[in-house]
Amino acid sequence: MRKTVNQKAWFLVLPVILLVAFSAVIPLMTVVNYSVQDTFGNNVFFEVGLEWFEEILHSERIHAALGRQALFTTIILLIEIPLGIFIALNMPKKGFWASASLILVALPLLVPWNVVGTIWQIFGRSDIGLLGHTLANLGIEYNYSQDVLSAWITIIVMDVWHWTSLVVLLCYAGLQSIPSAYYQAAKIDQASRWNVFRYIELPKMMGVLLIAFLLRFMDSFMIYTEPMVVTGGGPGNATTFLSIDLVKMAIGQFDLGPAAAFSLIYFLVILLVSWAFFTIITNIDKQEN
User: Fold this and answer.
1) DSSP 167
2) In this model, does residue 1 exceed pLDDT 70?
3) Do residues 229 and 264 share a domain?
């Protein structure tokens, strides 16, 4: 007997496919089209091949923005991943305080990105902001709009405040999935706290840690709203990351061809790194199973 395959399920998926095609594929194809063309206005275009890609890849301006972006992402990951693990390990595991802790930890994630930037922009001002005014009274020079170090510290602390909660929640979920028998066996063997973390908790958290690492890498490498609201990419170009530079090129200078090529290279970098981490996560899951 020949088995009949029911194809009606495709009608349920079709709206999603059409939505993705309209919202993602079509704009992407438009960007690809702009990346190989140039225009003098009046909607008249002519082919330039890979000229814009070569210009972007050899641009010192883009190299500088990439260096700032890589530095920012590295600092964020080195702070948020260990800090998230530490907080998750010290949170209550059961009872009322466990629920209260989860709610308090999750609160920063509910704040929109532009609101986060506005909060820290006001918070850091020396005239009306609590942080800026307090530091000024203590005799500490702090001005994120004029001092490079102050601007970097403000953006880093802001991102840590906003996104460490995500790492905490993922690590906490990983810890909650560990059977109590593991801890009982470690107690019988009189294992130290460090050995419990190293041989029980850390291996069991490795999957969620890679997910946290991937999500924080993607978001920090594409950060735009928060530093744009707080510093506008300044002072000078000190906090002009790749996303900010891309927007300035596309909207401020209206260089559509180079901006399109820049955005495609930017997209491919994120895609390749995400694919690498996805492969690592998949291999870990296969080994555990």
Assistant:
1) H
2) no
3) no
- Cβ contacts of residue 184 below 8 Å, gap of 6+? none
Q: Are residues 82 and 198 in the same domain?
A: yes
Structure-token pair, residue 41: 């206005």
Rg (CA), the chain: 24
Residue whose C-alpha is closest to residue 216's, from 165, 157, 284: 165
Q: Which domain holds residue 279?
A: 23-58+255-289
Q: What average pLDDT does the chain have?
A: 87
pTM for the model stands at 0.86
Query: Residue 222's CB: how many other CB atoms inside 10 A?
Result: 16
Domain end residue (candidates: 212, 239, 266):
239
Number of domains composing the chain: 2
Cα separation of 249 and 260, whole Å?
A: 10
Distance CA 168, CA 251 (A): 37
* 214: nearest Cα among 203, 224, 202, 222: 222
